[in-house]
């Protein structure tokens, strides 16, 4: 076996012969069930979203699109631990999220992009409001047009409803 040894203060490296009686790591074999020493414990990361038990709330998160006049919005549901939600059409620019008493008073949190840019790069308003335990309304209108309700401006509009336990 050979060993490369560094000499002090810039002298050349030299190769020296080593004692052939030394044991090298590659020559060692662990016996069955043997383990090495445990390494240091690392930091524990944050818990991921695993449902209501870790968050203390139920959630409905979706991307909403509404196309045409008089049509019900469609939801691309990203997460739903809340329960069955259906969408309804009320009038131009006014839609409803409907449930069976899921929107509990004092425990329902609404998160919504209020000012948004649509596919034509026009700013519009989108307002979520809890009407009662069965209904949340979504109203839309162009920002520069006085906010009058209008259809066909929602394209992948994000919203989230949380109901805390």
Helix/strand/pairing category = mainly beta
Number of strands: 11
Summed up, the helix count is: 1
Main sheet: strands, sense, barrel: 5 strands, antiparallel
Mean pLDDT: 78
- Low confidence ranges: 17-30
Distance between the termini: 69 Å
Radius of gyration: 32 Å
SSE string, helices as H and strands as E: EEHEEEEEEEEE
Structural notes for this entry:
This protein has 165 residues and is mainly beta. Helices cover 2% and strands 44% of the residues. The protein is built from one helix and eleven strands, in the order ββαβββββββββ. The strands form three sheets. The protein has a five-stranded antiparallel sheet with strand order 5-6-10-9-8, with no helix packed on it. It has a four-stranded antiparallel sheet with strand order 4-3-11-7. A two-stranded antiparallel sheet has the order 1-2. A hairpin with an 8-residue loop joins strand 1 and strand 2. The longest helix is centred in the N-terminal third of the chain and has 4 residues. It is elongated and about 70 Å long. It starts with a strand and ends with a strand. About 8% of the residues have low confidence.
